[in-house]
Amino acid sequence: MYFILWIIIGCICAAICSNMARSRGRGSGLWAVLGFFLGLLAILILAVMGNTNERLTVSSASRGEEIAKLKQLHDEGVLTEDEFEQEKRQLLARG
C-alpha cells in the first residue's frame, strides 16, 4: 500500500517538476526523474533556481550612452563607418 502511494506521489512530483522546468527553460526530462525520486525537495530546488529564459535588456538610456560612446570612437577614427553602423544596429536590436 505504501509503495503504491509513493509511486503516485512520485509521479505527481515528476509532472510538477517537468512543467516547472519547461517553463523556466530547463531540460524537463532530468527534472521529471529528480521529481520522481526526490519529491518535494526537487520542486523546492527548481523553485529557487533562476529562470534561464530571462533576457538581459538594456535600458534605452544606457543604449543611448553606448551609441554615444560608439559615435565618439567613430569620430576619433577608431571605428569605420561600417563598424559604427553594425555596432549601432546590434545595440538597437537587443532592446
Explain what the structure shows:
This protein folds into 2 domains: 2-48, no CATH class; 60-94. The model has no long low-confidence stretch (mean pLDDT 85). By secondary structure, the protein is an all-alpha fold. Helix content is 76%, strand content 0%. The protein contains 5 helices and no strands. 14% of the residues are buried.
Quick overview of this protein structure:
This protein is an all-alpha fold and 95 residues long. Helix content is 76%, strand content 0%.
Helix-strand layout with pairing:
Elements: H1 2-23, H2 28-38, H3 40-48, H4 60-75, H5 81-94
Helix pairs in contact: 1-2, 1-3, 2-3, 4-5
Name some characteristics of this structure.
mainly alpha; 95 residues; 5 helices
Tell me the β content: under 5%
Summed over residues and divided by their number, the pLDDT gives a mean of: 85
Q: What structural class results from the helix and strand content?
A: mainly alpha
- Share of helix, binned: over 70%
Question: What is the H/E string?
Answer: HHHHH
Strand element count:
0
- How far apart lie the N and C ends? 56 Å
Largest sheet: none
What gross morphology would you assign?
rod-shaped
Please give the count of helices. 5
Assembly state (oligomeric): single chain
Rg (C-alpha, Å) = 24 Å
